[in-house]
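User: I'm putting together notes for a lab meeting next week and I want to include a structural view of one of the chains we've been expressing. I don't have a solved structure, so I'd like a prediction I can at least talk through. The sequence is below, exactly as it appears in our construct file.
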Amino acid sequence: MIPKVKICCISSVEEARLAVDHGAAALGLVARMPSGPGPIADDLILAIAITVPPPIATFMLTSETAAQAIIAHHRRTLTNTIQIVDELAEGTYEEIKREIPTIKLVQVIHVIDESSIEEAIRISAYVDALLLDSGNPKATIKELGGTGRTHNWGLSRKIVEQSKVPVFLAGGLNAENVKKAIEEVAPFGIDLCSSVRTEGKLDPHKLSLFFQAIGF
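Assistant: Thanks for the context. Below is the predicted structure for the 216-residue chain, given as structure tokens.
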């Protein structure tokens, strides 16, 4: 099965349309982050999200770590999905779902070691999907995505095999390695940003090469 593709770091209505036209099933809209590429203002996330037709998923990437702050952030952007890129430190996933029950929750797991598997399986009981990335939340300046690095796909495969929900794979994916990544991990979806861009802008040629590489 060809995995769903999420194109992240979308920065304009035009980029959203370009990604969807090439086959993207989901778009990532990056809000304020401590580091990494592609953050845009909340009002621009809203402006883009309201133009995206169903059934395309719009992911708002939030670095908020408290349930009520995440809910408030969503109400400024109105995407149909929230991607929580850091650990939920205050409140619960149930609290978020009670207040915005129609919005999907995707928790990012930064795959570092065997403990990442335990974390992922535990959290998979409370969210709609997991997204496995290569950040380092414990770094002096938190890395919460967009590193361009791959991680240990063997660990990711174990998470896919045990997760209660669909799993997206992110981190350093490109047209050259994505087929191998799919074979090794068997994710529900894949997520990428920098490898389909030239000088920060979404590149239609690189998009075409990437989608061809996964069999579109």
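A couple of points you could mention at the meeting. The domain at 4-213 is CATH 3.20.20.70 (TIM Barrel). The helical segments are 13-22, 42-49, 67-77, 93-99, 114-123, 153-162, 178-185, 204-213.

User: Perfect, that's what I needed.
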